[in-house]
Amino acid sequence: MIYLKGHLARPLDAVLSAPSRLAVLRALARAKTPLSGRALARSAGVNHQAAAMALAALAKLGLVERRPAGRSDQWRLDRRRWLTSELLLPLLEREGDHADAVVDAIKKSLRGKAAAVLLGGLTAKGRLEPDRPIELVVVEGAMGRRTLSEAVRGLTALMKEQWFLSLEVRVLTRREAVRAVALEDLWELVPVEGPPSYFAAGTTDQR
User: Fold this and answer.
1) 68 belongs to a structural domain
2) What is the mean pLDDT of the segment spanning 63-76?
3) Does 84 fall in a domain?
4) What are 40-58's pLDDT values in tens digits?
5) CA nearest to 37, candidates 62, 71, 63
């Protein structure tokens, strides 16, 4: 096999060299229809200038298509390209499974041992950084704190081994959870088990 260097051997260097390019690719991969530059910037969570620069770079790589539509151009992925269909789209699809797999592991580990499990802090706000722990608020279930603590220890080990993620867990009794409604802003927490109004009725019983 001929040993090749540069773009021919490492095309991902150019594709993923800027976070904005990856953000734009994610947004286009999710889009059902072509998007304008401004709509794409909003969907990707970047400013318009960053989106425009990312699109220009991706267009040079042949990964996106631009089509005139009135006053604004419409953009979409060029799925005919090998790099798009065989490498980038499968990669982005698998990336999308990451959060679901983590949540499923939390549910499986704590189901039956916790009355409720919620995400908190930066995790709940969607701003978790790689070096920060996943913050959990766990309400003690009918099997008691000892059983729940053992399950949390097992879950902590699994998170580190499988995903290289750490946990910061706060365990509450049911009574503490009810009082916490008045003391803390639990609306910033995303429920893993139960509806968003889980604490609102002043009870932690399942409905």
Assistant:
1) yes
2) 90
3) no
4) 999 999 999 999 999 999 9
5) 71
